Amino acid sequence: MGKPRLYLFTFLSVLTLCFSCETKETPEADYNPEAKLTALNITLPSPPQPVANYVNGVRAGNLIFLAGKGPKRADGTELTGKLGQDVTIEEGYEGARLTAINQLSVLKEMLGDLRKVKRIVKVLGMVNSDPDFVEQPKVINGFSDLMVEVFGDRGRHARAAVGMASLPRAQAVEIELVVEVYD
């Protein structure tokens, strides 16, 4: 009778350990941001490299903080100019969308698979603006709209869209973000 009690005790101990462990979260089987990019006919470029003494992104726990990126095209040129002066809202929107693609390329390089993105948490959109320009949210919508197209509800985020007197290299927009990832 001693051995069955020992087996029962061992079984219950293992069962208790299993239930006390945190379960590792994973995305649903049908969650596939990269398939969404393909459906949108978007090919991610090589990530833009930092232009100074910083890195594209830093991971702290399950958060990734991405450095600001701008609307750099595949040919190396950027959308430059001031909104409300020589860049239209529509052009700025497309520039913000291009910036989103550049940030997704950084995420892809850091994570290897965009399915590891649990949520887009926070976006800071900076718009190179004429002093009288007040439509910064309409410009940064180009970024936000693509995040929702690619990640669904996981792409909805807190956001600031602000005007700046100038941005590096006269780029029209610069956007940084915080992303929560699966372990």
Automatic annotation (TrEMBL):
It comes from the Bacteria. It holds the Pfam family YjgF_endoribonc. CDD domains: YjgF_YER057c_UK114_like_1 (cd02199). Residues 34-169 form the Endoribonuclease L-PSP/chorismate mutase-like domain. InterPro entries: Endoribo_LPSP/chorism_mut-like, RutC-like_sf. PANTHER family: ENDORIBONUCLEASE L-PSP_CHORISMATE MUTASE-LIKE DOMAIN-CONTAINING PROTEIN, ENDORIBONUCLEASE-RELATED. This is Enamine deaminase RidA, house cleaning of reactive enamine intermediates, YjgF/YER057c/UK114 family. It comes from Neolewinella agarilytica.
